[in-house]
Structures are given as structure tokens and as C-alpha cells.
Amino acid sequence: MGTDGLAFAVESGSDPEYLDSLNDQLRALNELLASEGLPLHREPTVRGAAVTRDRMSGVPYSFLHYLRRAYARACEYPDEPLTPVVEGENAADDPAIEAVGSTFTSHLICHSDCEGYYVPVDFREVLFSEELAGALVGSSTALLRELVYVAPYLGVQLVDGGLSDAEVERIYAGLDHADGEPHPFFRELEIWIMLFEAARISVENGTIIEFG
User: Dihedral angle at the C-alpha atoms of 200, 202, 205, 210, nearest 10 degrees?
Assistant: First the structure.
């Protein structure tokens, strides 16, 4: 998952074929935005000031389904506390995911697990284009809102939607498993902070999020 693909490619002198491929994807992305009457996106060629505080080099794809379940259940049952996935059950099978995802307005749920883009343009429904990797294009602005919404259900303490450095430290301290028992929402939290930081950087630096 990257938030500075073009800037890194330009600064590092990447293979021209890769750079051409990335620019082709950015052109296709703008064609899609234009067809929907949305503002075009101009990807920076230099890195922005915002940097990630995520410490994970990667997580299994299955973790994303745990977070999607958490968000879907928070939407469907907002007055109920979130409970962990029961041992032996598949997080992706929770009916709440289909219920919330069926409208294509959830940018967390309606997206590829492993490829595709989020763009820092605000729009309601997830977009579709066969010209783009992953086909589904989400809004990093909308994704950030959804991550803010689900945060309290995971025990994450935000201030006006912002994640402080102290809270980042507290989350990771709780994931250390020092007592041998993993946090009941360790999967959800690991992917949550990874996505939150990617979405925050995307919005602040004006860059796309690229899966893959």
C-alpha cells in the first residue's frame, strides 16, 4: 500500500516503463473522475510533508475482512458494543458486510482487497472502471470518515477525528502481547491504523493510495 508512488518513481529514477504505466493509470483515473463530473486529481511529483506512523510492513488480506465486519456491524448495530469474531467463524461471512456494502457507498467495504486506488476527492458512491487496476476506485476522504466512525468501537480514542502520537503509542503498546494473550481486536487494529495513516497522508499530501 503506497501513498507516494509517482513522487518516489520520479525521485528515484524508476524504470521508464513503470513510470509510463503509472501515468497511464493516473490518466484513466482522471477520465473516470471527469465522466462523473468530479474534480480532476493532480498527483504530486514530490513527496509531501505528512509521513506515516504505521509500523507494520504488511498484514494478511484476511485482516481487512475483520475491519470491514467491524465497520459494517457498527453501522447496522450502532448502539451495541463490538464483539470479536467467534473462533472458527469467517469474518467475511457476517451478513452485516453485505447489508452495508450493497449500496456501494462504503469505501472501506466496496474495494479490492489487494489492488486498486483511493483518490483524495470526495464522492459518495464507489466508482468503477475496467481501465484501472482493481476496477473499483474509492475516495480516501470518504475512507477516512469511515475509519473515524469505527474507531470508538475498536477502543481508539480520537480528538476531533485526529489520531495523536500518544494514541498511536498506546495502540501499539496494547498490541505487544506481553502477557501472551493477543488483543481481542488485534487484526482490526493493525489494519485500521495502516489504512487510517494511508488515508490521512492521502488527504494531507493530495496523493492517491495505491494497493498492490
Answer: 140
